[in-house]
Amino acid sequence: MAQTNKNLGNNNFAAAEELPKAKSRVKEFVKKFCKRKTAVISLIFIIFIILMAIIAPFIVPYAPDQPDYMSLLQGPSSTHIWGTDEFGQDVFSRLMVGSRLSLSCALIATIVGTIGGVILGLIAGFYGGFIDSLIMRCCDVLFAFPDILLAIAVVAIIGPGMVNVMIAVAVFTVPSFARIIRSATISVKGSLYVEVARSLGCKNSRILFVHVFPGTIQSMIVNFTMRIGTAILAASSLSFLGFGANVTEPDWGAMLSTGRNYLNTAPHMVLFPGILIFLTVLAFNLLGDGLRDTLDPKMN
Amino acid sequence: MKNRKKLLAALLAGAMTLSMGATAFAAEAEDGYAVKATNTEATSPDNDLVIAIEGSVSSMDPANIPDTNAISATRGCYEMLVYFDENQEMQGQLAETWEVSDDSLTYTFHLREGVKFHDGTDFNAEAVKANYERVIDPENNLRQRRNFIETADDGTETPRVESVECPDDYTVIFKLTKAWSPFINRLTQFCIISPAALEEYGNDIMNHPVGTGPFICTEWEEGDHTSFEKNEDYWGEPASVDTVTIREVPEAGSRTAMLQTGEADMVYPMPADQIQAIEGNDDINVMTADSNIMRYVTLNMNLEPLSDVRVRQAMNYAIDKEAYIQVMYAGNGTIASSVVPHIIPGYKEQEAYTYDLDKAKELMEEAGYADGFSLTLWGDNSTQEIKGMTFIQQQLAQINIEVEVLPMEPATVSDKIYVEPEEAEVNMWYVNWSASDFTMDGSLRSLLYSTMAPPTSANTAYFNNEEFDSLLDEGLATADPDKQAEIYGQAQTIAWEECPWLFLASDQLLYSTKSYLSGAYVAPDGAISFANAVLAQ
């Protein structure tokens, strides 16, 4: 992680040397991105959810774990805008506070998976040969399992719990990054400036992280955004199945799971967590689409 | 026909039934409609009874019964010498009459004549003896064996029955080695299997049930359904319905839907929160009745803060039992007022730990734990159990006790509970118990007797009170009901004041039927009786 940051720093430095061009590219990107309305709306929604995750505990009308046994399973009303759950807890407050848990789980898992995948992809693409085969065949094995099945398998081995769910989601995030970054690496590796760096006597590690890696960032960002959506869904699914958050925590997936038992009497208990998960995942995917359309050189 | 058998087994065995909470419920059909059908003229489109249950019929061998659903199913085709009727009164079934000698050592049964097993074999005294010998044979390893064996602390076994004699074809005499008051209750779980079939199939009898009951088992597919057809040659009044099918439907919503569409005629258990869903139907009755299920949380008394009786009492005061019943059973339950449910004979009402936070905090302060402490709470991972555990967590948080709720697979819980005392990790266990033999001993011994701590049995409070132990022993050796009541009353008071548990409630059984079904009901321990079912045509 530290190393990556350092290299990112170097990259900024390198970019600063070509100041005019870098500036115009950012401007160009913003301009293009703003044309994609769905992506912009998604971004606004995501910013809202993230903001909510940060400030929700201070602004929600009820404490998320404050039971009210006099108003169990009540539908939406002016006192509880999204109704109450089986303990009379306010569904709106729980969902808003729960966004912290669900988002941070998905984000951390995706970041960890991305780092792993990027490093493996860079190494495989850059060195080629036996190392490449070894890494990519391992990734192929992981690919052979459907994402959620792989995550369940991981959780089954290391046990349930929020941290373990993050590990599981990170594990299935790795191969897709490794594959994408590897192909990006292979194409960047042949570029003239890499040849130049090599002929100047740069060490492999410098070429890899300072020259090749920045060339793969675009694909990484796009895939990263997309994977967050998948990760939210996976983490919620695992919590839904009882592998994730502790049952007493206000996690979106866990709330959906509990609400399922009251589907025919208190449908608001599944409706609101369901809508929130749906919209959040959709927003991340649309944002990813928008970013890809904007960033992908092939699309330009 | 009701239920007790499981109980028996479970009682002594201890452990398993404990966490099978859902299995035990109770009911008397007369009183208690949670919802009463307005359309009482409805008729059934067929004469085939379909019952949808939550769990699984896991055995059809009546001597090897793991849970209440198996009791429900085996009672379709098997009968006992004596049974508890709908009002929980003991009646003769295959025995017409019986006598107990003054010293409580000799039980003489006069058997019903002219009864035939489904395979045509005659029912007689030799058949009873053959069944007893099968059960008691350690080679067969049947759960019911524990009902007739006394196990000492060092593991040595003594049979409780000295001899079984058959002076003539229709008289059986059981002689006990020493007075043992629950004996006749245990016989309500003792089903008589055809000796000819036993000879032919041995312990594979579970796949070929042959009894004397009003129905003949035609198919038993565990995990899906069990089917019966009417026994035309039944010795009593033949069954009214042509066939009975017990379907296993774990999802509460699906069970409710089956009842609404008429696919099922009876559904048990009916979750309290589903009642609302069927209120639009005018031909469905939802019945409620008292159960003998005790719901409680054991407190490991060997553990530092829980070893202080003031802490345990404070915890009991901190729990709003009324809210518990409301949250868990939509109001269909009774607050625990002793260590046993009120329908157990010998129950004695104790002074309630009324919800009182001030008092609870005061006691915590007195004990030096005003700032609280942390505990874990174990339990099964079913929806209902998790809900109950979460409730306990919320309540104890009020007196600064931080509870970590840890739901686990039932098998995992058992593995973690039944360990040597020095390895015990249990803090609190959210659990329930139903004594199918309806005796005080069955309700208390496995749970609170000092030598019944794990791994032997389910005393997970590690409750160890000499006075309590000797009262239980005394109770067992006494046949006089008044004296027994007094002894058990004292025992209950001791346990109640010592608070080895958080005393919660006895929930009420909830089951629903189409209004055209009558005569089928659920007994207080959750066993379904359908022998006298009638579908209005």
Keywords:
heterodimer; A: 300 residues; disordered N terminus; B: 537 residues; alpha+beta; 13-stranded mixed β-sheet
TL;DR?
The complex is a heterodimer of chains A (300) and B (537). Chain A is mainly alpha-helical and 300 residues long. Chain A has helices at residues 2-17, 19-35, 37-59, 91-127, 129-143, 147-158, 162-189, 192-199, 204-240, 252-260, 268-295.
Give an overview of the whole structure.
- The complex is a heterodimer of chains A (300) and B (537).
- Chain A has 300 residues and is an all-alpha fold.
- Helices cover 77% and strands 0% of the residues of chain A.
- Chain A has helices spanning 2-17, 19-35, 37-59, 91-127, 129-143, 147-158, 162-189, 192-199, 204-240, 252-260, 268-295.
- Chain A is elongated.
- Chain B is an alpha+beta fold and 537 residues long.
- In chain B, strands 1, 2, 11, 12, 13, 14, 15, 16, 17, 18, 19, 20 and 21 form a 13-stranded mixed sheet that branches. In chain B, strands 5-6-10-9 form a four-stranded antiparallel sheet, with helices on one face. A two-stranded antiparallel sheet of chain B has the order 3-4.
- In chain B, helix 1 (4-13) packs parallel to helix 14 and helix 14 runs antiparallel to helix 15.
- The interface between A and B is medium-sized, with 17 and 23 residues.
